[in-house]
Structures are given as structure tokens and as C-alpha cells.
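#struct-queue
[09:14] JT: dropping the first one here, sequence first, then the C-alpha cells:
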Amino acid sequence: MSKQSPVTVSRRSFLKLAGGVVAGAAGASLLPNLVRNVLWPTRLAEAADSVADLHLASTDGWIHLPPAAAVPPYHPDALAPAPLTTYIFGFRDVTGLTDAQVQAQKLKAQHSAPLFWVDEGTEFRLQLSNLGLGLRPDLVDPHTVHWHGFRDQIPFFDGEPMGGFSVPIGRSFVYVYRPYHAGTYMYHCHVEDVEHVHLGMTGIVFVRPVQNGTPYEYPPLSGKSYTKFAYNDGDGSTGYDREFIIFLSEVWAEAHWDFSHVQLPDWTEYRADFYLMNGRVYPDTLAPNGAGNDPVTGDLIPTAGYEHLQYQPASSLIQVNAGDRVLLRFANLGFSEQSMTLAGIKMRVVGRDAALLRGRDSTDLSYQTSTISAGTGESYDAIFTAPAMTGPGPYTTYYLYNRNYHRLRNGSGTGHGGQMTEIRVFPAGTLPPQAAPNT
């Protein structure tokens, strides 16, 4: 239960007041051009009239977590439509859908939020449409897209509502970015961020360096060159053949149940019940990626045999050829530090928080490790070389897992689960070139 405060304006009332401030800001379009250009470094009208590179919709929805790992009465949620179990807030990629299809995605959010990436130095436009909440129409929260750790943003497009503004229900806004620092970042809604981040409005975004496309031989005289890099290293040391995102998040079942049952959680009692990797728990982390959007309804298409993962479309299975250099992009937006161990293979950490680990005098600050400990809001870029395949099977298996074994359990369940996936090493030349991350 929430405690009484001497302040008479409630949190929800304050949000309504903030919405009024947004409306007042819209009225500033009546100001003279000179004043508007000061207030709006890139003018809203110009942004809204242009075609977005990515269109996200914010809404609520349901996902699946193992029902056998019961946390009564909070998990599985009795209101959830089978085979789903857990209420969330989230985003959906609705790029290219018609207006009617976009509106039909209310109550069909996904977790983790859609992955996207941009090219360094290239303008990128992201449209956010707030569809409102299908299960909780009483909540009229606005939403934003805040690019966590982004160093090149002006407040107007930052997504932090105290310095900019937020998008009310039924409205859309186009964010304009021009990134100049390669690396791995996160994004999330910054309105009521404790609630909205934990309920699922968060995911990974990364910036590809301008060095991409220029061949570098690495190591020198090795005879192998790369054209894809994590950073502008100038020597090919962050070159890779394949890349995979590892997004870490958590679910406190009581908080999710509270929101679906019109209650308010006490965040001072926070205790995660599930630890997720790309929105899933092991062994679902090994399931294939989703099949995209239905061309008629716009809804996410579940992969046959994995219908319970319809709104958790991102696989964490890592499949590589022996000899491949593999880039792992780690990001943590749970509320706990997570220590991820790769058993049997050393990783070289080349970047942290979207910064190349190199001193001002070009001293190499990268390091080898088998474990990466990522605090809340931190990202790491690590590269490993896949060893030669061993054994008689079609591939050799290694495990990437949370070294805190409690976080390999699902809720009150036992055994494997939580934040774990497999790295499968095939004989050299078996797998074709990677078409996209996590494929």
C-alpha cells in the first residue's frame, strides 16, 4: 500500500499536469520563428512530417514464464490468456504497418523491446506512437524513448520527461538522432522509469562504426581480414565474423501481478523471481527467433512449436563456426548486478559503456576474462574466437550462464533456468555468413 504524503498532487495527477505542459508546448508553434528555433533545435514539425526509419508502438501485453515455477498467487497470473503467464508494458516494432494494423497491436507488447542499430554519423529517425494500455485503460501514462548513455543528444530528443516531454496516449512523436560514438547502448521509457523499465519497456540499441566496410587484417600477417567492427579501432582489433546481443532483465512476479490486478507494488520490497536473457529463461533461450509480423494483422508470428514465445521473439542461441571471431554485446537493465560466465572459452573485453577500452595515448586497456560482471545500466562488448570442434556430434557445446546459481532457477523452481544459453561450435565453413545479429 502507498503511504500518505503531505503533497496533495498524486503521481497520476502530476502526470496529467505534465501532459498539460506538453499541450502548452505544442501551442508554442504560434511563437515567432526566431523563438521557436531557439526552443526547438530541430523543429518538431519538420521531424513529424518526415518518414521514420523505425516506428515503435508503446502498449501493454503478456509474456510466458514457466508456470511450474509457481509464486502463488502472483505467478502464473490468473488473468493471463493461455499459454501466457505474466503482464508487461513494452514496445513493438510496427514499421511499415498501416494505421489500422498499428492500432490493433494494443495489448500485444513484446519483451525484450525490439533490437535496433544505427550507423555512426548517419541521421536516424524513430517514431514513437503511444497506443495506451489494453488491460489498464485507467492508467493514462505517457511514454518516451530514452537512449541510455547516449552522448550526442539534445534535451529535446533525449526522452527524459523533466528536460523534454513525453508522448501522451493517442499521439506520436519522431525522435531525430545523429550518433557519433560507436558501441552498445540501451533504451527505455523514462516516464515512471522504475515501473516502466521493470515491466519491460527496455531493450538494446547499438551504433555501428564508420570503420565498417574498410578491410583490416587482424592479427597482422594472419591472412584473415575483417570488414565488421565493434569500434573505430584503426587496426582491426575489434573485427568480428558474427555478433550476438545478450540483454539481461528481471521479473518480480508480485509487481507484474499488481499492475494487472489494479494494485500498487511497494518497490522497497523488490525481489526478482525470474532472471531473463533477451526476454526469455533457459531452455527457452535456445528456441528460434520469431517469424516477424503477420502481413494481414500486423501481430507477431510465433514459430511453430514455440507458440508460448510469441511475444518474446529474440533467441539467445549462439551458433558459430570454429575459428569465427564472435562479438557479444552485453547490456543489463535489471536492478541487480549480473555476472555472466563463459565456461571453457576466454573472452576479450574490448568496450564498456559504448567506449573502446583504449587510453588517450592509445594504450590497449582490453582484457581477457571468463566472467563479465555488469551492473545496472552497464554494457560490455566482448570478443572470443571459437575453438576447434571436439567430440563426435554435429557441434561442440559451451555454456554462457549467470554464475549466481540462484539466478539459474525459475521462481521457486529448481534446476537450470534463468540467464543461461548455449554456444554451439560447428566445423569451420558449416554455417553461412550471418545475415543479422542473433541469427
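[09:21] JT: and here's the second one, same format:
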Amino acid sequence: MKPNRQRILEQAQSGTARAALLGISDGLVTNVSLILGVVAAGAPVQVIRLAGAASMIAGAVSMAVGEYISMQGQRELLSSVLEAERDELHRNPEQAHSVLEQALTADGVTQSTAHTAAKEIARNPEKASTVYARANLGINPDALGAPYRAAASSFVMFFVGALIPLSPWLAADGTVTAAISLGLSGIAALCIGGYLGYTTGGTIWKSALRQLFVLILGAGATFLIGHFFHATLT
């Protein structure tokens, strides 16, 4: 089954899909790295659970706030540009007609057809500004981003990603638990990477292995640091 390209495109433009993918990937890599670092430091299971839970909640909140601020700032910036263009086209309809005609001819429309179409579009300033924004500025006024949805998506998916390596520690402890935590995280990384490759039309296994490599790199680095600063915490 092929992915729904239209739905994916709409989600990507709104920022929701990007926030979800970044959230689950960041949550997974962040928490498995932190947990293994604390494990390598010789911390008791209570500390491992506390560190993992704190990282999960704090990271999810931080991701959501950052995503909201980023998307809202982008939306406000693009809105100000569109408003300025809308005012300019409203004040100077002749210029609007000329700009629209040039935009249409640049897309391969014949001169006569572009002239007639631009004249018709220019009669409606709102429609004219929308066409101009898409043709000349590369901005879709109907898809400036959804800050609240992106923030919510980022929060939920970071939480889910961070919960994967933490979940085995909520029921047990020891070396076997560490191995299970890492194994689950590795499987999740392969799934995330594979899904990304699938939806983007790339090579699924390459994308999956890339995601796994990032996970191993992060977890390995923090494990070595934790082992170097080994200390039993009470």
C-alpha cells in the first residue's frame, strides 16, 4: 500500500508530521541515552526510574514549547509578509495585474491567456494576493502552520518515544532489564527510520539503519561517560 501523499503533504506543511517525527525520535534517543548513562554510573533502580521519568516529562514539555514558539513565529512572519503584499496589490491594481500576468507566463501559460486570467484574478484583491503569494513568494496562505497541533504532536510523540526505553525499568532492574530496554529502543529506531523511508519514497532499510546508528551513537557515548564517572548513588 502506498502512503497517502496528499495527506502527508498537508501534515508536513502544517508542521504536525515533522513535529511528531522529531518528537518520537528525540524522545527515544534522549531517554535511552540518559538511562544507559545512569545505569553505567552504577545508580540504583530508583534513581534510574526517576531520571528516566523526569527526562520524559521535561523533554516532552520542552519540545512542545519550543515547537509552538517556532511555528507561531514562522506563522506571524509569513502573515506579515502576506499582509504587506496584500496591501500593495490593493493600492495598485494595475501592478497586481502585471505581476500576476508575469507569474502565469513564467509557469508556461501563453501571453494572451495569462493576460485574460490575470485581469480576472486581479478583480479580487484577496484572490490576487493568494495567487501571487503561491507563484512569486512560494507561500501557501492556507498552510502557514498549526502551532497548537504541532506542539501537541511533539509533546505526545516525545513522551511515547521516551517511554519505550523506560518501560522495562518500571517493572524490573538489572543487566537483563538494561538489555531489554536497549533492544526495545533499537527495534523502535528501526521502525521510525523505516517509516520515514517509506513515506518519503526513499530506501527503507537505509533510513532504518541510519536511525539505529544515531541511537547507538548517542547511547554509546552516554554509557561511556557514565562508566567513566562511575559512582554509586543513594
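[09:30] RK: nice, looked through the second one.
[09:31] RK: The chain has nine helices and no strands.
[09:31] JT: good to know. The chain has a mean pLDDT of 81.
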